[in-house]
Each structure stands twice: as structure tokens, then as C-alpha cells.
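Tutorial handout. Part one gives the primary structure; part two gives the three-dimensional structure as C-alpha cells.
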Amino acid sequence: MPPKLELLLMLFYSNFNKESLNTRIVIDECIENHHQSFKLKATAVNYDREKNICHQYGVTGIPTLLVFLNQELVRRHYGEITIKEIETIVQNNLIRGYKKYKPEEGAEEKSRMNS
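Part two.
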């Protein structure tokens, strides 16, 4: 059985940056739109306070959005993002995840035959 798809949106932001704050609002809206459809989570990392995490992920500017599919980094987005852009990113990575984790045709049948 394939693992359940989980998308994590990790936003590096600053409270002193308008684009960061706008991006946080867009991400919250996206979460609200999809919270029942699949596992979509978001976390925000304060660029001014969490320099060690920024360094760990190679983030040097804000806002920066990292997208993880089942804990694998699959996308980076630099700068402010619109709701349409985030929706496209989410949909494209869900499609990627379904293709990557989709069981082979007949895999279940083969498994039963080998038992």
C-alpha cells in the first residue's frame, strides 16, 4: 500500500517584510481550502530569529517557501506568492506524489500469488 501523501509548506519570513506577511496569508488560505482533501501542513520560520534553520536549508532571502512531499524537498519558491501560484504548486506536487507512490498495475495480484 502506498504511503499517504503529505505536503509540508515551510515558509521563511520576517515580520518586517510585507511580502513575507502577504505570503503567510496566502498559505493560510490554501490550507483552509484543502485541509480536508489531503494532508497539507505549513510551518513558518522567522528569518530574524532562526538563523540556524535558515542556514541548514540554505535560505538567504525572504520570503522563501520550501515544499516537501513526504519529507522530501521538491520545490523552492523565492519571493511573494499568489494564491493561484500556491494552488498550482500544491496540485503539481500532489500529481507528482500520486505518480511516484502509485502501486504498479497488478502488484497486489502478484503479491497474493507469491504468498
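Part three, for discussion. The mean pLDDT is 85. The domain at 6-114 is CATH 3.40.30.10 (Glutaredoxin).
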